[in-house]
Amino acid sequence: MDCQCCQKKPAHIRVCDIEANTMSEQFNVCADCWIFIKRYLFDHARPLQPTREVLQEVRQLLSSQEPKALAKLEPPGEITPVPAESLPVCPECGMTLAEFKHKGRFGCARDYEVFAAHLDPLLERIHDVTPPRHRGGRPAPAPGADERVNASRELSGLREQLRAAVAEENYELAARLRDRINELERGNLTPGANP
Amino acid sequence: MSGLAGFDCFAHPLGEWLKGSGPDSDVVISTRVRLARNVRGFPFTGRASAGQRAEVLRLCQDALHRVHLEKSVITLDLQQLGEIERDILVERHLISRELAGAEGPRGVTFGRGEMLSIMVNEEDHLRLQWIKSGFDPDRAFAAIRRVDAALDKVLPIAFSEQYGYLTACPTNVGTGMRISVMVHLPALTLLDHVEKVFKAAGRMNHAVRGLYGEGTRAFGDMYQISNQATLGRSEEDILASVKAIVPQVLEYERRMRGELYTEKRELVEDKALRALALLRSARRLSVQEMMGHLSMVRLGIDLKVITDVTMDTVNRLFILGQPSHLQAETGATLTPAEREARRAELVRGKLATATN
In CATH terms, is domain B8-257 a member of 3.30.590.10? Predict the structure, then answer.
């Protein structure tokens, strides 16, 4: 089966709603497009679990705004497959092991888990310590802080969607987005409700 | 001078850490403790979109306002500042060159005493630093730990049991803590022993570099000694290692100063007094020249060869004579030649005042 996104490469990844798990709720994409889709979802502050809402978003992404939305993520050009030696790839920020080795910088906190198998020799060398494990202090629990961050991530996604909705003259959607943004900004910190 | 909204850098006195009054201030200018932190749930700055950076900036500044940092702090949006204004903040050690030269939403919050400074959206979302005058790592650490603990309560921080505080660069992971001690080593430089210090520090996992951090030259015999390792050691271990290594460098420098003074007294008096005379008469001074001569004057003050200039005056000139401070004070962009003339005028003025 061809990837439903690029329609060129074979689809190896099935995106589905685990609870529903029905054929109507499935998408089949290739590994490269999946990275782009996850990047899109991440940039728009959407959760990465294949929930019903995400599926819907992926469907929209693939049908209506797909070419435009995906083009914005990376410089224009062919989507090149990730070579095997570059793997693994971080599902959150899309950083590959090869890119990390080249830049020497992580893309997000999740990279430490994703590249864990490759990290110890590097960290041992940098910090001259075996095994390279943390021995210092830790952050105190921050009650309510995660909610603020989630709301904040949602806000940044909503603002981007609002700009796009206004640009496309979709004022009905823009109004709903604006109301949700106002609600969040007033301190209603319950993220997740779709406008 | 305009542009640094709410912060007139000339009405505002220079950082307290420059006053030359802390422990071991004959050799140590300042001790800085820096902690690198990231907000959980966002990609690191280098990977974040402009929207995400703006959100991180907003979240961090909101958190900074929630916690009681100091009586009054100044918050600046670096996107709103011009190049000279950003460079002033670099020259005052309030932000890094990297943050000044970066793009996108980023900011700095600092205390009026300029001991506390918090950069947002540097390589890591948060870089907290505290600078103390002289060699004072314990107090600088205690002060910045309080800020860190207060921020912890309002901001979720990226942390793993295995690797500690997670940072964009693997060289900072773990405690995220870097202690940098700014030292003045004129005698070791004069007697060509600095290389030895570099190598010995390197063997003990500490780095020695120039005044303005990585990749900068050591102007005016000023160097920074800092810990390299941040993982596999507790904050206390890092403090202990800095407290074991830096005093050895200080003793070495003092021994060489003593040697200079007893065995080459005429040479050192000549160098220090000539440097002072030149600074008091010159009509043009480059930064390098100014810093080189100020370094000799500083040595002369310590060896009591010069008694009519204070350490504080010299420490301040090191900053006020930097290019962006000069231009901001003049209120115009100056050509290199104009800067040299203005710098010489400033130095003559300050050193003449010291005489009165």
Answer: yes
Higher pLDDT, A142 or A136: A136
Instruction: List CB contacts of B233: < 8 A, sequence separation 6 or more.
Output: A127, A129, A135, A136, B174, B175, B241
CB-based contact (8 Å) between B164 and chain A? yes
- Per the document, the length of chain A is 195
Region B121-149: what's the mean pLDDT?
95
In chain B, residues with a C-beta closer than 8 Å to the C-beta of A146 are 40-41, 156
Domain positions in chain A: 13-73, 84-127, 148-186
Contacts of B40 in chain A (CB under 8 A): 109, 146, 149
Beta-carbon separation of B41 and A150 below 8 A: yes
pLDDT of the residue at B128:
97
Interface A-B, measured as beta-carbon pairs within 8 A, has a size of 151
For residue range B44-73, list pLDDT tens digits in order: 999 998 889 999 999 999 898 888 776 778
Q: ipTM, 2 decimals?
A: 0.86
Give contacts of B 214-233 with A, CB under 8 A: 228-233
Give the B window 174-203 contacts with A, CB below 8 Å: 174-175, 177
The distance in angstroms from the start CA to the end CA of chain B is 28
pTM for this predicted structure: 0.76
> Could you give the angle at which helices A145-167 and B50-66 cross, rounded to 10 degrees?
140
